[in-house]
Structures are given as structure tokens and as C-alpha cells.
Amino acid sequence: MIYDFSEMKKKRDSLEEELQALRQEYQKPQMSKEQLQALQRKMEEADMANRKQRKKMRMIKLATTAAALIGAFIILPNTSDTMAQAMKQIPVLGQLVEVVTFRDYKYDEERNMADIEVPEIKLEEQTTDSELQQKLERTADEINKEIKEITDQLVEQFETHLEDEQGYQDIVVKSEVLATTEDYFTLKLLCYQGAGSGYQCNYYYTIDLNTGERLQLKDIFEEGADYITPISENIKEQMQEQMDADDKVYYWLNDEIEAWNFKAITDETSFYLNEEDNVVIGFDEGEVAPMYMGSVEFEIPAEVLSDIRK
Question: Which of 65, 151, 175, 231 has the fewest Cβ atoms nearer than 10 Å?
């Protein structure tokens, strides 16, 4: 597939200008049904244009980075005994847990495209604790089963769409290792569906390597601690700061439609722990902001939760 970045940029800029005008109308006291529908269409079009450009640039960046890393691993260990010894000390993903591609489903023609890579978590080493090993294996199996169910359903929907000839559709499923430390391992599953409009949904899977269990938000706080309030209030602060800094950023925080406004997370809200051991809260498209904002994440500063973390 060949991308024309100049035309893509022109289209995106035009869509964003129209979107900005519609957003200004939206924030007025009254807005007609037709204006709301127009706003939604432009949000979706802008989102699709941005996604196509970001996807291409991300692939270029990943390829460049991979080439640089390969070069480093080939050259550096052979230039110095000290460097070679230091390289042995670098922790690598896979000492205990690794991710492999379980299934690779691809389809590409004029009206339909699928690029689905199904990840699978595998244990690379045996622990000395047999009970912990069993828990890790059970948790990995549970996560793999859930991922398979999600991706099987997407493939089934895609093939049904093909048979019914319902029009254009795009499906992309990728995975990303967000953190791998001595204590935690986190895998992110990214699922994108486009059929006239686009929608991305993210799933986060964090394994506590000390207990072998899938980590829940409540597990990282002292028993009985109120973590919902400080996390929610910090997210609201970050939302407001982002909107104050950039008029293109918009969250449902002080919206006239009260039911849309973000009030608080729940125990079911998606989260993970990053490499700095900070809590990161994730929201899918349309959950706390208009669709054009895409999926969004908020890293909670350590000092916000330091008094209640385990």
C-alpha cells in the first residue's frame, strides 16, 4: 500500500479546520441535531486520517529503531570486553515471560483489510517455587484464552462482513509489551475496527510475578484504602491542564450534557503499571472524550498515591 503523505496531510488539515469550527458550535448553549451529526462525522473522518498517518510513521520508526538495535547488538559486544560483559547484565524480556505470535491472520483487497496478530504469553523459565509456577501457568493460560476469544470473534465478524458484502472494513490487532520488571509483566492488546467510522479498544494484562496472579487495581494498595478518589481527581486535573494548554484537546469534564462528564474511575477501569512503577489509567475511544481524541491514558504521579501504595 502506497501512502501519499502530502494529500493525507491536506485532507487531515482540512478536516481538523472543519472539526474545530464544529466543536466551537458544539460548545455553544444550543446545537441542532444536524450539527451534532456533522460533528460526529468529522470526528470520525479526522480520526481515520490521523490513524493512517500515525500507523505509517509508526511502522517507519519501528523499522528504524529495530535496525539500530540490531546494529548495536552486532557491533558493540565485539568492540570491547567491558562492553560485552555489560551487555550480559542487561535484563531482557523472556527471562521468565515472553510473548510470541500465536496466529497471524491477514487479508487485503480494495474494500476489506485485516491485519491480526494474536499474541500468546509463554513462560520461558521454571521457577524454584512449584506453587508459584503453577499459578503463573494458570494465569498465562487464562489470559491467552481471553485473547483468543476476543480475536476469534473479530475474525468471525470480519469474515461474516465479507460474505454479506456489507462495504468497507478494516481490522487491526497488535500487541505491545508495556512493562517487564522483576515484579510485573504487562501486555497491551490493541484492537482497531473501521467500517465507515473507526474505533479502537485496548486490553491490558498485568501479571504479578511474585504471586503468579493477574493484577487487579485494588491489589497494589493498602487494604481498605480509598484509591478511587485520588486517582480520579488527578485525572480531572490532567484533563483540565491539557485542555488549557491546547484548544484542540477536549474531554467530557465540564460539559453541558452532565451525563457525559467524567466523574470517577471504577475497579473495572483499565490500568497497568509502567516501568517506573506508576499507575497508568487507560480509556477507550469515546469513553471520556469525543471519538477524535482516540484512546487516552493518564499516568498518575507517584506522590499522589505514595501514602496508600503497598
Answer: 65
The residues near 7 (Cβ < 8 Å, ≥ 6 apart) are: none
Helices marked H in 130-260: 130-164, 228-245
Give the Cα separation of 158 and 47 in Å (integer): 21
For CA atoms 20, 280, 245, 264, the dihedral sign is: positive
Residues, the chain:
310
Q: Is residue 93's pLDDT more than 90?
A: no
- The secondary structure of residue 108, as a DSSP letter, is E
Most confident residue range from 21-25, 219-223, 290-294: 219-223
Which residue blocks in the chain are alpha helix, DSSP H? 5-26, 33-75, 81-87, 130-164, 228-245, 302-305
Tens of pLDDT along 167-178? 788 999 999 999
